[in-house]
Specification:
By secondary structure, the protein is an alpha/beta fold. It has one domain: NAD(P)-binding Rossmann-like Domain (Rossmann fold), CATH 3.40.50. Helix content is 34%, strand content 11%. It has eleven helices and eight strands. Strand 2, helix 3 and strand 3 form a beta-alpha-beta unit. Helix 5 packs parallel to helix 7. The chain is globular.
Length: 334
């Protein structure tokens, strides 16, 4: 790993010309992805499905790994040429097996989009004793990226997009009690910690990977009603304005935060392919632009735009990387 020439990309607006109403197709523009290989975890539902549709439509060969391939097959039936694979991010053996199959194919990996995840789920742990949201949202993707590293490096110019969220505002990383052994479980603190981890993952991966042509970004897509919200109660959805006048799930209005699925996928696609981001990385993005740091005093307020300081702190990112190696058993020095 050679980081001597690494320059941190400022966490400040590029004035991209896009905004909260930009769709994924508009963010793609005229980018041609013929010959590019893309993996989208969670690429068969919600934002992941829209991301898959748009990138495949631009000519990319998209691989969608899923825990239940038959369910994914039905969702992806209208998108020609997508490859379906098996992957369970809660199962380290499944991660290794999927990555090994891909590496054996001999293909480079130009874009890895870590879109799969869980939000505000009940208290649950994997067989290692790791809290579910942290295990799926962060550790599973960390291990997946590490196992796919030879293919990312072989692309000679790859991007990794990590799905974070404004939910990172709920919590930084509690390195002293990652898995709620000493404090009561809170689904929102667990979610916030996992989403902060997604952002910090991009910070440190970008620093480590840039000399091999691998750049990383984290994304807040906006508030979009997808299956990700399946663990939320009717009361929580009402508080979020996500119950329409007929009592059905659905925003009655859309603002800068609340988006349609095509709008929610826009920042993901932009980070994956936009030439505006050439030579940049390690930043948290929203509304199809690099996000500003939050205003002082609003760091923990989830309804404010921007990114909290604990989600782009390079020291916390480096520490999380070391802890992630220890927790996954992945000795990954890039």
């Amino acid at each position: 790993m050679n980081t001597n020439n690494y320059v941190i990309t400022p966490q400040e607006l590029l004035n991209s010309g896009f905004g909260p109403r930009t769709t994924a197709v508009e963010a793609l523009g005229d980018v041609n992805l013929e010959g590019k290989v893309v993996i989208v975890t969670g690429g068969y539902s919600g934002l992941g499905l829209e991301t898959t549709r748009v990138l495949a439509g631009a000519g990319a060969q998209v691989i969608v790994p899923a825990r239940t391939p038959e369910k994914a097959k039905a969702a992806l039936a209208s998108i020609p040429g997508v490859e379906l694979e098996t992957l369970d991010l809660m199962d380290p053996a499944s991660i290794d097996a999927f990555a090994e199959r891909f590496i054996r194919s001999g293909r480079p990996l130009h874009i890895l989009i870590n879109s799969a995840g869980v939000m505000a789920s009940g208290e649950a742990y994997d067989h290692r004793g790791y809290e579910q949201q942290f295990a799926v949202n962060h550790l599973g993707h960390f291990q997946l990226m590490a196992r796919l590293w030879p293919a990312l490096k072989a692309a000679q110019g790859a991007r990794v997009v990590s799905l974070s969220s404004k939910g990172h505002r709920f919590s930084g990383i509690d390195f002293d009690d990652l898995f709620f052994n000493s404090k009561p479980y809170s689904k929102w603190l667990a979610y916030g910690q996992a989403k902060t981890a997604n952002a910090l993952f991009a910070v440190e991966l970008d620093r480590r990977g840039y000399s091999d042509g691998v750049r990383a970004f984290s994304v807040h897509p906006g508030s979009i009603l997808t299956d990700l919200a399946r663990h939320l109660s009717e009361e929580e959805l009402q508080a979020a304005g996500a119950i329409d006048e007929q009592g059905q799930r659905g925003y009655t209005t859309y603002n800068d935060e609340q988006k349609t699925i095509p709008e929610g996928a826009a920042t993901i696609v932009w980070c994956a392919v936009s030439p505006m981001l050439n030579g940049k990385g390690g930043v948290y993005c929203e509304n199809v632009d690099i996000a500003r740091p939050v205003e002082p005093g609003n760091e923990g307020q989830p309804n404010q735009p921007g990114v909290s300081p604990w989600a782009f702190d390079p020291e916390a990112a480096a520490k999380l990387w070391t802890v992630s190696e220890q927790l996954t058993g992945v000795d990954f020095d890039i």
